[in-house]
Write a structure and sequence with these properties.
Layout lengths: L7 E7 L5 H10 L6 E5 L12 H5 L11 H12 L4 E7 L4 E9 L4 E5 L7 H4 L4 E6 L2 H15 L4 H20 L8 E4 L4 H17 L1
Parallel strand pairs: 1-5, 1-6, 2-5, 6-7
Antiparallel strand pairs: 3-4
């Protein structure tokens, strides 16, 4: 990133299992690696060390209050100022932040992805481009089941209970309403390549300027 140049910050939102990470990686693949930093909102879940693992497992992780948005905003502002940050790493099996962090260097383009990134007005203001991945609920829930069972050690019953208790109602309350705040809506099953090319072209023009 050129000294004094403000990065282009892109937010990618959508429901759980909507394909946000896939779209983010597709955008990153079109750009020089050193020019892009990827920030995952999930890394900023609050560390509730004072609770037992059983109590932590019962928390509502689909509500905006579960995430430390102030820290993410601080980190985005530091990256915008040309400063490196230490990004948290989150352990989804034990519902805790890991003791180690990941160093993220300033970059010309910063991509932030997460289900609730448009629900916070102060965070939303940081995004130059806002994308919403619009995917039907049945596809999203099947993807979530597979992810949570394969990568997070959850049982089907645990996933089912969480989905009905928090995932679905929080999606309807906090995620779906932010769809109208997006600059671009990318439909699942639609021509995603066209949307990605449009976003990448916008990024390239910003980098040239």
């Amino acid at each position: 990133m050129t000294p004094g140049q403000r990065p282009l910050i892109i937010g990618i939102a959508g429901g759980t299992g909507s394909g946000k990470t896939t779209i983010a990686r597709a955008i990153l693949a079109e750009l020089p690696g050193e020019s892009v930093a990827l920030m995952d909102h999930d890394a900023y879940y609050r560390d509730r060390a004072e609770l037992s693992i059983e109590a932590r497992a019962q928390l509502n992780y689909d509500h905006p209050d579960a995430l430390e948005n102030d820290l993410l905003i601080q980190h985005l502002d530091q990256l915008s100022a040309g400063l490196a940050i230490e990004r948290p790493l989150y352990d989804f099996v034990h519902h805790r932040r890991k003791p180690e962090t990941q160093r993220v260097l300033p970059a010309a383009v910063i991509v932030v992805e997460g289900i609730l990134i448009f629900a916070d007005a102060a965070l939303r203001e940081r995004f130059d481009i806002k994308l919403f991945i619009d995917t039907p609920a049945d596809i999203r829930v099947l993807r979530r089941i597979r992810r949570d069972m394969e990568r997070r050690g959850r049982t089907f019953e645990e996933i089912r209970r969480q989905y009905h208790a928090t995932v679905r109602p929080m999606h309807e309350a906090f995620v779906e309403p932010t769809r109208r705040l997006a600059d671009v809506i990318i439909p699942e099953g639609g021509n995603q390549r066209v949307a990605i090319e449009m976003v990448v072209d916008r990024i390239r023009r910003a980098l040239r300027s």
